[in-house]
Write a structure and sequence with these properties.
2 domains; 15 helices; Arc Repressor Mutant, subunit A; alpha/beta; 5-stranded parallel beta sheet; about 475 residues
Protein backbone atom coordinates (compact mmCIF):
# COMPACT_ATOMS: atom_id res chain seq x y z
CA UNK A 1 0.00 0.00 0.00
CA UNK A 2 1.39 3.36 -0.97
CA UNK A 3 1.71 6.08 1.63
CA UNK A 4 -0.32 9.28 1.74
CA UNK A 5 2.94 11.23 1.07
CA UNK A 6 3.49 9.35 -2.16
CA UNK A 7 -0.04 10.13 -3.39
CA UNK A 8 0.40 13.77 -2.41
CA UNK A 9 3.62 13.95 -4.47
CA UNK A 10 1.86 12.26 -7.36
CA UNK A 11 -1.11 14.59 -7.39
CA UNK A 12 -1.53 16.91 -10.33
CA UNK A 13 -0.79 20.00 -8.27
CA UNK A 14 2.51 18.83 -6.80
CA UNK A 15 4.99 18.35 -9.61
CA UNK A 16 8.47 19.32 -8.48
CA UNK A 17 10.46 21.78 -10.56
CA UNK A 18 12.53 19.79 -13.10
CA UNK A 19 16.26 19.90 -12.45
CA UNK A 20 17.55 21.26 -15.78
CA UNK A 21 21.19 20.95 -14.75
CA UNK A 22 21.11 17.43 -16.23
CA UNK A 23 21.03 19.08 -19.66
CA UNK A 24 24.42 20.71 -19.06
CA UNK A 25 26.67 17.69 -18.81
CA UNK A 26 26.28 17.58 -15.01
CA UNK A 27 28.74 20.48 -14.89
CA UNK A 28 29.15 21.84 -11.38
CA UNK A 29 30.27 25.30 -10.28
CA UNK A 30 33.87 26.33 -10.92
CA UNK A 31 35.92 29.00 -9.13
CA UNK A 32 36.14 32.54 -10.42
CA UNK A 33 39.35 33.74 -11.99
CA UNK A 34 42.09 34.40 -9.41
CA UNK A 35 43.06 37.93 -10.37
CA UNK A 36 44.89 38.40 -7.06
CA UNK A 37 47.60 36.13 -8.47
CA UNK A 38 48.18 38.48 -11.42
CA UNK A 39 50.69 41.33 -10.87
CA UNK A 40 49.89 44.93 -11.72
CA UNK A 41 49.25 46.59 -14.14
CA UNK A 42 48.04 43.43 -15.86
CA UNK A 43 45.40 42.85 -13.17
CA UNK A 44 43.81 46.27 -13.67
CA UNK A 45 43.97 45.87 -17.44
CA UNK A 46 42.09 42.57 -17.19
CA UNK A 47 39.43 44.20 -14.99
CA UNK A 48 39.11 47.16 -17.38
CA UNK A 49 38.74 44.84 -20.36
CA UNK A 50 36.08 42.81 -18.56
CA UNK A 51 34.08 45.99 -17.87
CA UNK A 52 34.52 47.35 -21.39
CA UNK A 53 33.52 44.15 -23.19
CA UNK A 54 31.06 42.58 -20.75
CA UNK A 55 32.99 39.32 -21.15
CA UNK A 56 34.31 37.16 -18.28
CA UNK A 57 37.71 38.06 -16.85
CA UNK A 58 38.59 34.35 -17.29
CA UNK A 59 38.85 34.85 -21.03
CA UNK A 60 40.89 38.05 -20.70
CA UNK A 61 43.38 36.33 -18.41
CA UNK A 62 43.83 33.61 -21.02
CA UNK A 63 44.69 36.29 -23.58
CA UNK A 64 47.30 37.82 -21.24
CA UNK A 65 49.05 34.49 -20.71
CA UNK A 66 48.92 33.88 -24.46
CA UNK A 67 50.46 37.31 -25.05
CA UNK A 68 53.43 36.43 -22.84
CA UNK A 69 53.83 33.09 -24.61
CA UNK A 70 53.70 34.84 -27.99
CA UNK A 71 56.51 37.20 -26.98
CA UNK A 72 58.69 34.55 -25.35
CA UNK A 73 58.13 31.02 -26.62
CA UNK A 74 61.42 29.18 -26.83
CA UNK A 75 63.30 32.48 -26.36
CA UNK A 76 62.76 32.16 -22.60
CA UNK A 77 63.25 28.94 -20.64
CA UNK A 78 62.59 28.16 -16.99
CA UNK A 79 65.46 26.06 -15.63
CA UNK A 80 64.58 23.90 -12.62
CA UNK A 81 67.77 21.78 -12.63
CA UNK A 82 70.57 21.36 -15.17
CA UNK A 83 68.58 18.38 -16.53
CA UNK A 84 65.11 20.00 -16.56
CA UNK A 85 64.00 23.21 -18.18
CA UNK A 86 60.78 24.32 -19.85
CA UNK A 87 60.10 26.78 -22.70
CA UNK A 88 57.43 29.43 -22.20
CA UNK A 89 55.12 27.68 -24.65
CA UNK A 90 51.48 27.55 -23.50
CA UNK A 91 48.44 25.82 -24.96
CA UNK A 92 45.17 27.38 -23.80
CA UNK A 93 41.47 26.86 -24.45
CA UNK A 94 38.75 29.48 -24.04
CA UNK A 95 35.57 27.43 -23.61
CA UNK A 96 32.08 28.89 -23.81
CA UNK A 97 28.68 28.76 -25.42
CA UNK A 98 27.90 31.02 -28.41
CA UNK A 99 27.72 34.75 -27.65
CA UNK A 100 29.46 34.53 -24.28
CA UNK A 101 32.11 37.12 -25.18
CA UNK A 102 35.01 34.87 -26.15
CA UNK A 103 36.10 36.87 -29.19
CA UNK A 104 35.39 40.24 -27.56
CA UNK A 105 37.51 39.34 -24.54
CA UNK A 106 40.48 38.30 -26.69
CA UNK A 107 40.36 41.16 -29.19
CA UNK A 108 42.22 43.81 -27.10
CA UNK A 109 45.27 41.59 -26.63
CA UNK A 110 45.19 40.61 -30.29
CA UNK A 111 45.36 44.30 -31.25
CA UNK A 112 48.41 44.81 -29.02
CA UNK A 113 50.15 41.76 -30.48
CA UNK A 114 49.40 43.00 -34.00
CA UNK A 115 51.13 46.30 -33.14
CA UNK A 116 54.23 44.47 -31.89
CA UNK A 117 54.23 42.36 -35.04
CA UNK A 118 54.00 45.46 -37.25
CA UNK A 119 56.94 47.02 -35.40
CA UNK A 120 58.99 43.88 -35.79
CA UNK A 121 58.25 43.74 -39.49
CA UNK A 122 59.23 47.40 -39.90
CA UNK A 123 62.56 46.60 -38.25
CA UNK A 124 62.97 43.55 -40.50
CA UNK A 125 62.39 45.69 -43.58
CA UNK A 126 65.00 48.20 -42.48
CA UNK A 127 67.57 45.46 -41.95
CA UNK A 128 66.62 43.81 -45.22
CA UNK A 129 67.05 47.07 -47.09
CA UNK A 130 70.43 47.63 -45.45
CA UNK A 131 71.60 44.13 -46.42
CA UNK A 132 70.37 44.61 -49.96
CA UNK A 133 72.46 47.78 -50.18
CA UNK A 134 75.46 45.70 -49.18
CA UNK A 135 74.72 43.08 -51.85
CA UNK A 136 72.84 40.63 -49.64
CA UNK A 137 69.64 40.85 -51.72
CA UNK A 138 67.56 40.05 -48.67
CA UNK A 139 68.92 36.53 -48.38
CA UNK A 140 70.32 34.87 -45.28
CA UNK A 141 73.05 32.27 -45.50
CA UNK A 142 73.03 29.13 -43.43
CA UNK A 143 75.35 26.17 -43.89
CA UNK A 144 76.39 27.61 -47.21
CA UNK A 145 72.82 27.61 -48.54
CA UNK A 146 70.87 30.78 -49.28
CA UNK A 147 67.72 31.01 -47.17
CA UNK A 148 64.64 33.01 -48.23
CA UNK A 149 63.71 36.00 -46.11
CA UNK A 150 60.86 35.24 -43.68
CA UNK A 151 59.20 38.29 -42.09
CA UNK A 152 58.61 38.40 -38.35
CA UNK A 153 55.28 36.96 -37.30
CA UNK A 154 53.89 36.87 -33.79
CA UNK A 155 50.45 35.35 -34.44
CA UNK A 156 49.28 32.76 -36.99
CA UNK A 157 45.83 31.37 -37.71
CA UNK A 158 46.61 28.38 -39.96
CA UNK A 159 47.07 25.15 -37.98
CA UNK A 160 48.72 23.34 -40.89
CA UNK A 161 52.16 22.18 -39.64
CA UNK A 162 53.72 22.95 -43.02
CA UNK A 163 52.56 26.59 -42.89
CA UNK A 164 53.66 26.90 -39.27
CA UNK A 165 57.07 25.42 -40.04
CA UNK A 166 57.56 28.04 -42.75
CA UNK A 167 56.73 30.79 -40.22
CA UNK A 168 58.91 29.39 -37.44
CA UNK A 169 61.87 29.07 -39.82
CA UNK A 170 62.15 32.86 -39.73
CA UNK A 171 60.87 33.28 -36.15
CA UNK A 172 63.05 30.97 -34.08
CA UNK A 173 61.51 31.87 -30.73
CA UNK A 174 58.20 30.58 -32.11
CA UNK A 175 54.70 31.72 -32.92
CA UNK A 176 51.25 31.85 -31.28
CA UNK A 177 48.55 29.87 -33.10
CA UNK A 178 45.37 31.92 -32.59
CA UNK A 179 42.29 29.79 -33.28
CA UNK A 180 39.12 31.88 -32.90
CA UNK A 181 36.74 30.05 -35.23
CA UNK A 182 34.11 27.31 -35.45
CA UNK A 183 36.41 24.37 -36.19
CA UNK A 184 37.75 22.48 -33.17
CA UNK A 185 41.45 21.65 -32.99
CA UNK A 186 41.76 20.38 -29.41
CA UNK A 187 41.87 16.63 -29.27
CA UNK A 188 40.97 16.33 -32.94
CA UNK A 189 41.82 12.91 -34.31
CA UNK A 190 45.38 13.06 -35.65
CA UNK A 191 45.47 9.80 -37.56
CA UNK A 192 48.82 10.65 -39.08
CA UNK A 193 51.45 9.63 -36.51
CA UNK A 194 53.91 12.10 -38.03
CA UNK A 195 51.38 14.92 -37.55
CA UNK A 196 50.85 13.99 -33.92
CA UNK A 197 54.63 13.80 -33.35
CA UNK A 198 54.99 17.27 -34.86
CA UNK A 199 52.45 18.73 -32.41
CA UNK A 200 54.11 17.08 -29.43
CA UNK A 201 57.39 18.64 -30.56
CA UNK A 202 55.64 22.04 -30.80
CA UNK A 203 54.71 21.80 -27.12
CA UNK A 204 58.28 20.94 -26.13
CA UNK A 205 59.88 23.37 -28.63
CA UNK A 206 61.66 20.31 -29.99
CA UNK A 207 63.13 19.40 -33.35
CA UNK A 208 60.88 18.41 -36.25
CA UNK A 209 61.04 17.41 -39.87
CA UNK A 210 57.92 18.43 -41.76
CA UNK A 211 57.10 16.86 -45.11
CA UNK A 212 55.96 19.31 -47.80
CA UNK A 213 54.05 18.41 -50.97
CA UNK A 214 56.31 18.52 -54.06
CA UNK A 215 59.07 20.20 -52.03
CA UNK A 216 61.96 19.00 -49.89
CA UNK A 217 61.07 18.32 -46.27
CA UNK A 218 61.81 21.17 -43.87
CA UNK A 219 63.88 20.34 -40.78
CA UNK A 220 63.85 22.69 -37.80
CA UNK A 221 66.01 22.34 -34.67
CA UNK A 222 63.21 24.01 -32.67
CA UNK A 223 59.48 24.14 -33.40
CA UNK A 224 57.86 26.20 -30.60
CA UNK A 225 54.13 26.84 -31.15
CA UNK A 226 51.85 28.24 -28.45
CA UNK A 227 48.08 27.89 -28.93
CA UNK A 228 45.06 29.97 -27.94
CA UNK A 229 41.78 28.42 -29.08
CA UNK A 230 38.16 29.39 -28.56
CA UNK A 231 35.75 26.49 -28.61
CA UNK A 232 32.13 25.68 -27.83
CA UNK A 233 31.52 23.08 -25.12
CA UNK A 234 29.65 20.64 -27.34
CA UNK A 235 32.44 20.64 -29.94
CA UNK A 236 35.07 20.29 -27.26
CA UNK A 237 33.26 17.27 -25.80
CA UNK A 238 33.03 15.63 -29.22
CA UNK A 239 36.72 16.23 -29.87
CA UNK A 240 37.80 14.89 -26.48
CA UNK A 241 35.75 11.72 -26.86
CA UNK A 242 37.19 10.92 -30.26
CA UNK A 243 40.70 12.29 -30.06
CA UNK A 244 44.10 11.64 -28.53
CA UNK A 245 44.28 12.75 -24.89
CA UNK A 246 48.05 13.28 -25.14
CA UNK A 247 47.35 16.58 -26.92
CA UNK A 248 44.36 17.71 -24.84
CA UNK A 249 46.31 16.99 -21.64
CA UNK A 250 48.62 19.90 -22.41
CA UNK A 251 45.91 22.61 -22.42
CA UNK A 252 44.97 25.11 -19.75
CA UNK A 253 41.16 25.31 -19.87
CA UNK A 254 38.98 28.24 -18.86
CA UNK A 255 35.24 27.45 -18.83
CA UNK A 256 33.42 29.94 -16.59
CA UNK A 257 29.99 28.78 -17.74
CA UNK A 258 26.82 30.92 -17.77
CA UNK A 259 27.49 34.42 -16.52
CA UNK A 260 25.29 37.25 -15.23
CA UNK A 261 24.74 40.14 -17.57
CA UNK A 262 27.39 42.81 -17.22
CA UNK A 263 26.41 46.36 -18.07
CA UNK A 264 28.92 47.81 -20.50
CA UNK A 265 31.17 50.56 -19.18
CA UNK A 266 33.08 53.26 -21.01
CA UNK A 267 36.68 52.60 -19.99
CA UNK A 268 39.57 54.74 -21.10
CA UNK A 269 42.16 52.47 -22.63
CA UNK A 270 44.96 54.38 -20.91
CA UNK A 271 46.63 51.16 -19.79
CA UNK A 272 46.93 49.83 -23.32
CA UNK A 273 50.11 51.85 -23.93
CA UNK A 274 51.61 50.64 -20.66
CA UNK A 275 50.92 47.04 -21.59
CA UNK A 276 52.26 47.58 -25.09
CA UNK A 277 55.51 48.81 -23.56
CA UNK A 278 55.71 45.69 -21.43
CA UNK A 279 55.07 43.41 -24.40
CA UNK A 280 57.84 45.20 -26.28
CA UNK A 281 60.15 44.67 -23.31
CA UNK A 282 59.30 40.97 -23.27
CA UNK A 283 60.02 40.82 -26.98
CA UNK A 284 63.45 42.40 -26.43
CA UNK A 285 64.15 40.11 -23.49
CA UNK A 286 63.38 36.89 -25.33
CA UNK A 287 66.35 35.88 -27.41
CA UNK A 288 66.40 32.91 -29.75
CA UNK A 289 65.77 29.24 -29.10
CA UNK A 290 69.50 28.62 -29.47
CA UNK A 291 70.43 31.37 -26.98
CA UNK A 292 67.42 31.77 -24.69
CA UNK A 293 66.95 33.98 -21.66
CA UNK A 294 67.11 31.55 -18.74
CA UNK A 295 64.93 31.99 -15.65
CA UNK A 296 66.57 29.86 -12.97
CA UNK A 297 64.58 28.37 -10.12
CA UNK A 298 66.55 29.03 -6.94
CA UNK A 299 66.93 26.71 -3.93
CA UNK A 300 63.83 28.08 -2.17
CA UNK A 301 61.88 27.73 -5.40
CA UNK A 302 62.97 24.11 -5.83
CA UNK A 303 62.00 23.30 -2.25
CA UNK A 304 58.55 24.80 -2.81
CA UNK A 305 58.24 22.97 -6.13
CA UNK A 306 59.20 19.67 -4.45
CA UNK A 307 56.26 20.02 -2.06
CA UNK A 308 53.89 20.77 -4.93
CA UNK A 309 55.11 17.83 -7.01
CA UNK A 310 54.95 15.42 -4.06
CA UNK A 311 51.29 16.33 -3.48
CA UNK A 312 50.66 16.08 -7.21
CA UNK A 313 52.15 12.59 -7.33
CA UNK A 314 49.84 11.41 -4.55
CA UNK A 315 46.76 13.00 -6.08
CA UNK A 316 47.38 11.46 -9.47
CA UNK A 317 46.87 8.01 -7.96
CA UNK A 318 43.23 8.89 -7.23
CA UNK A 319 42.13 10.00 -10.70
CA UNK A 320 41.87 8.33 -14.06
CA UNK A 321 41.11 9.00 -17.71
CA UNK A 322 41.57 12.46 -19.18
CA UNK A 323 42.08 14.06 -15.78
CA UNK A 324 44.93 11.68 -14.97
CA UNK A 325 46.62 12.46 -18.29
CA UNK A 326 46.22 16.21 -17.63
CA UNK A 327 47.67 15.99 -14.11
CA UNK A 328 50.57 14.02 -15.53
CA UNK A 329 51.55 17.04 -17.62
CA UNK A 330 50.87 19.60 -14.90
CA UNK A 331 54.41 19.59 -13.51
CA UNK A 332 55.43 21.26 -16.76
CA UNK A 333 52.42 23.58 -16.65
CA UNK A 334 53.19 24.76 -13.11
CA UNK A 335 56.83 25.48 -13.96
CA UNK A 336 55.83 27.42 -17.08
CA UNK A 337 53.21 29.37 -15.13
CA UNK A 338 55.87 30.25 -12.53
CA UNK A 339 57.96 31.73 -15.33
CA UNK A 340 54.99 33.76 -16.57
CA UNK A 341 54.28 35.04 -13.04
CA UNK A 342 57.87 36.21 -12.71
CA UNK A 343 57.84 38.00 -16.07
CA UNK A 344 54.49 39.69 -15.45
CA UNK A 345 55.80 41.08 -12.18
CA UNK A 346 59.36 42.01 -13.12
CA UNK A 347 59.34 43.26 -16.70
CA UNK A 348 58.25 46.89 -17.03
CA UNK A 349 58.45 49.44 -19.78
CA UNK A 350 62.20 48.94 -19.93
CA UNK A 351 63.85 45.60 -20.61
CA UNK A 352 64.78 44.87 -16.98
CA UNK A 353 66.27 41.44 -16.50
CA UNK A 354 64.00 39.18 -14.46
CA UNK A 355 65.24 37.66 -11.24
CA UNK A 356 65.37 34.07 -10.15
CA UNK A 357 62.17 32.12 -9.64
CA UNK A 358 61.75 31.66 -5.91
CA UNK A 359 59.20 30.15 -3.57
CA UNK A 360 56.80 33.07 -4.07
CA UNK A 361 56.52 32.57 -7.83
CA UNK A 362 56.25 28.78 -7.53
CA UNK A 363 53.54 29.04 -4.87
CA UNK A 364 51.60 31.62 -6.89
CA UNK A 365 51.74 29.41 -9.99
CA UNK A 366 50.71 26.34 -7.99
CA UNK A 367 47.79 28.26 -6.43
CA UNK A 368 46.64 29.42 -9.86
CA UNK A 369 46.93 25.87 -11.16
CA UNK A 370 45.21 24.20 -8.20
CA UNK A 371 42.64 26.85 -7.35
CA UNK A 372 41.59 27.73 -10.89
CA UNK A 373 42.87 25.65 -13.80
CA UNK A 374 42.44 22.23 -12.20
CA UNK A 375 38.73 22.73 -11.34
CA UNK A 376 38.07 24.08 -14.85
CA UNK A 377 39.90 21.14 -16.45
CA UNK A 378 37.97 18.73 -14.21
CA UNK A 379 34.67 20.30 -15.33
CA UNK A 380 35.72 19.78 -18.95
CA UNK A 381 36.86 16.19 -18.47
CA UNK A 382 33.90 15.19 -16.30
CA UNK A 383 31.59 16.45 -19.03
CA UNK A 384 33.46 14.45 -21.65
CA UNK A 385 33.50 11.25 -19.60
CA UNK A 386 29.89 10.84 -18.54
CA UNK A 387 28.90 7.28 -17.69
CA UNK A 388 26.66 5.48 -20.14
CA UNK A 389 23.76 5.82 -17.69
CA UNK A 390 24.31 9.57 -17.29
CA UNK A 391 24.49 10.00 -21.05
CA UNK A 392 21.17 8.18 -21.46
CA UNK A 393 19.53 10.29 -18.75
CA UNK A 394 20.70 13.47 -20.41
CA UNK A 395 19.66 12.26 -23.85
CA UNK A 396 16.13 11.36 -22.76
CA UNK A 397 15.81 14.63 -20.81
CA UNK A 398 16.65 16.56 -23.96
CA UNK A 399 14.26 14.46 -26.00
CA UNK A 400 11.44 15.20 -23.55
CA UNK A 401 12.23 18.91 -23.65
CA UNK A 402 12.35 18.85 -27.45
CA UNK A 403 9.24 16.72 -28.13
CA UNK A 404 7.24 17.83 -25.06
CA UNK A 405 4.87 14.82 -24.89
CA UNK A 406 2.22 14.70 -22.17
CA UNK A 407 2.99 11.05 -21.41
CA UNK A 408 5.38 8.34 -22.57
CA UNK A 409 5.82 4.61 -22.31
CA UNK A 410 9.05 2.90 -21.46
CA UNK A 411 9.14 1.25 -24.89
CA UNK A 412 8.56 4.56 -26.64
CA UNK A 413 11.50 6.09 -24.79
CA UNK A 414 13.68 3.07 -25.58
CA UNK A 415 12.83 3.16 -29.29
CA UNK A 416 12.55 6.87 -30.03
CA UNK A 417 14.72 8.68 -27.52
CA UNK A 418 17.43 6.03 -27.14
CA UNK A 419 17.15 4.56 -30.65
CA UNK A 420 17.06 1.04 -29.16
CA UNK A 421 20.59 1.48 -27.82
CA UNK A 422 19.48 0.44 -24.31
CA UNK A 423 17.71 -2.54 -22.81
CA UNK A 424 14.30 -2.34 -21.16
CA UNK A 425 15.93 -2.49 -17.72
CA UNK A 426 18.42 0.27 -18.61
CA UNK A 427 15.56 2.41 -19.91
CA UNK A 428 13.65 1.76 -16.69
CA UNK A 429 16.60 3.02 -14.63
CA UNK A 430 16.76 6.14 -16.82
CA UNK A 431 13.08 6.92 -16.22
CA UNK A 432 13.46 6.36 -12.50
CA UNK A 433 16.33 8.83 -12.43
CA UNK A 434 14.30 11.37 -14.43
CA UNK A 435 11.44 10.90 -11.97
CA UNK A 436 13.83 11.88 -9.17
CA UNK A 437 14.89 14.93 -11.23
CA UNK A 438 11.29 16.00 -11.73
CA UNK A 439 10.89 15.28 -15.45
CA UNK A 440 8.43 12.37 -15.22
CA UNK A 441 6.42 10.37 -12.71
CA UNK A 442 4.51 7.13 -12.62
CA UNK A 443 1.14 7.12 -14.35
CA UNK A 444 -0.82 5.73 -11.39
CA UNK A 445 -3.95 5.21 -13.48
CA UNK A 446 -2.11 2.68 -15.66
CA UNK A 447 0.12 1.06 -13.03
CA UNK A 448 -0.39 -2.63 -12.42
CA UNK A 449 0.26 -4.27 -9.08
CA UNK A 450 3.32 -6.51 -9.09
CA UNK A 451 4.61 -5.31 -12.48
CA UNK A 452 7.27 -2.76 -13.36
CA UNK A 453 5.97 0.66 -14.25
CA UNK A 454 5.93 1.12 -18.02
CA UNK A 455 3.85 4.31 -18.39
CA UNK A 456 4.95 7.72 -17.22
CA UNK A 457 3.44 11.20 -17.12
CA UNK A 458 5.65 14.10 -18.25
CA UNK A 459 5.96 17.23 -16.13
CA UNK A 460 3.71 19.92 -17.73
CA UNK A 461 6.32 22.54 -16.78
CA UNK A 462 8.54 21.27 -19.60
CA UNK A 463 6.05 22.66 -22.12
CA UNK A 464 6.75 26.12 -20.71
CA UNK A 465 10.51 25.68 -20.35
CA UNK A 466 12.76 27.50 -22.77
CA UNK A 467 15.32 25.28 -24.42
CA UNK A 468 18.95 25.97 -23.50
CA UNK A 469 20.94 28.05 -25.99
CA UNK A 470 23.18 25.09 -26.71
CA UNK A 471 22.09 21.56 -25.98
CA UNK A 472 25.41 19.85 -25.51
CA UNK A 473 26.12 16.67 -27.44
Amino acid sequence: MRSHAFHLQASEENWRTPDLSVLDNRRGPVPAVLLAMVPQPWRDWIADTERATGAPADYVLQSVLAGVAAMCGAGVRVRVTPAWDEPLVLWQAVVGEPSTGKSAALAPMRRLLDLVEQERRAGDEERRTARAGQGGAGQGVKDGEAQPFVPSQVVASDADPVALADIVSGNPRGVLLWRDGPAAWIGAAHDDEDDRTTWLAAWEAGAVTVARPRQPARSLPRFPVSILETIRPERLMEALRSGDDSLAARFLFAWPGPQPYRALAVVERSRDEELLQRLRALSRLAASADDPCVLAVDARGRAALDKVLAALHAERQNVEGLEAAWIGKSRSLIVRLAGVVELLGSIGGKAVRPGAIGAEQVEAAAALWRGYYWPHAKAVFDSAELSDHSKRVRRVARWLLDKRPAEVSREEVRRRALCQAATADETQHVLERLAYLGFVRVDLARERVGRATTHWLVNPALAETEKPVAQLA
